[in-house]
Amino acid sequence: MKVLEAVFLTSAARAADVPRHAEPQIALVGRSNVGKSSLINALTRSTVARTSGAPGKTRLANLYRIALSGSLRPEADPEARGRGPVAGGRWTVYLVDLPGYGFARGGEDARAYFARLTSEYFGLGRLKAAPTARERARPQPDDAGGGRLQPDDTRGGRLQPDDTRGGRLQPARPSAALLVVDARHPGLASDLDAWDWIQSLGLASAVVATKIDKLGRADRTRALGELECALNSPVTAVSAATGEGMDQLWKRIATLVTPSKKGTAADRP
Fold it and tell me: Of 44, 146, 155, 246, which is least surrounded by CB within 10 A?
């Protein structure tokens, strides 16, 4: 897979402001300091995404258009040309960097806003923002969720669609999602909840563990094993600093967006 072009398109304050495209959109979901912007730059071998050392700085949904050449499967449906990595062709994918969950600059109102933007982009029930350390220290009712991400509406155990009566514009929806976690902190409650939520949406999805270069060989093996066990999913380990794992991640993304014979994403967990 070869990156031909990486372009920043827009920042969206509302889900309805995210442009719709025929090509697949991949949502990047993760904690505020997990390094999603650095991951985008490493994937595209560019500085298309702005990075910051301050967690919670991303306040909008940032959309990037990535043009690539190369193929994953020569037998991919010819009718899917332009919508996935078919043999020998150029294809396009959009990466959508969503505000991180957890810490957010601006306090409780900002965290609630970020959670609403993210959940509305997926087109389903909202996620409650994770509480601050001070909030967690206060006594909580039994059903408060222990500071973990929770759906606002869990009727029947399933997230419910947002009310769209009154001719409200339907926002763009992602084709697949990447949960981005920090390899140094496997099994965080917020990451587990985010993965459960993504799984409940029925999207093609995968887990990416960043900052793998910061772990020695033994710690790396242990952390990845814990992650795969906790999430019950394979994990692609990457490093934005060294470029490790980027080719494998592009192949994983291509798998997620390659239409099957039935016209759906090829690989679902």
Answer: 155
Across the chain, which has 269 residues, the per-10-residue mean pLDDT values are 92 83 89 91 94 62 91 48 57 90 56 72 55 46 40 34 35 83 94 91 94 96 97 97 96 84 48
- Contact yes or no for 75/84 (Cβ under 8 A): no
Q: What is the pTM of this model?
A: 0.73
CATH code where residue 179 lies: 3.40.50.300
Residue 247: inside a domain, yes or no? yes
Q: Which domain holds residue 197?
A: 2-134+148-155+168-257
Angle between helix axes 246-257 and 36-44 (nearest 10 degrees) is 90
29 by DSSP, 3-state: which?
A: strand
Q: Is residue 221 part of a domain?
A: yes
Tally of domains in the chain: 1
Give dist(CA 48, CA 42) in Å, integer.
10
